[in-house]
Amino acid sequence: MLVPIIAAPAGLELLCFERTHEVIDHKGEICLPGGSIEKVDRDVVDAALREANEELGIEPASVRVLGLLDDVHTFVSNYIITPVAGFIGAKPEVVSDPLEVARPIAVPLATLLSQGVERHELRGPDGTMRRIYSYQVGEDRIWGATARIIHGLLHLWFGEDDASS
After folding, report:
1. What is the C-alpha separation between 76 and 62, in angstroms, rounded?
2. For the whole model, what pTM was predicted?
3. d(C-alpha 17, C-alpha 140), whole Å
């Protein structure tokens, strides 16, 4: 999965998108571009760049790969996601795949860092207690694995203590 960090005129943004209701898993959720590794991919980086190109039209050559974030497990669909942080020096022309992308969403980093945008609760679908993160960005709620990835990125970047979030 690519975590596209975009240099936009008003500041850094993460490029996410709302999934359509035609996809198999996570219908209507807000996510980052990504998918499974295929035979044509050498590794998770290749897969992330290919998927970002297929879903949002992001040219792989425009992405400077910064590194890998910690793996994230999806509890409901049972995927292991390896987030690939990538920097894009200028806002790309987004060309969405209409089968997968309902709409692209540029999320300003400053918004994610604003007081009260990040929330968490303790619960779990299988009865275990887990910290479930979410971000309320305007009318959009980013939650689940995408929120855990964003939280991990922000924690790595800014070093904020988990207990204060």
Report:
1. 33
2. 0.89
3. 10
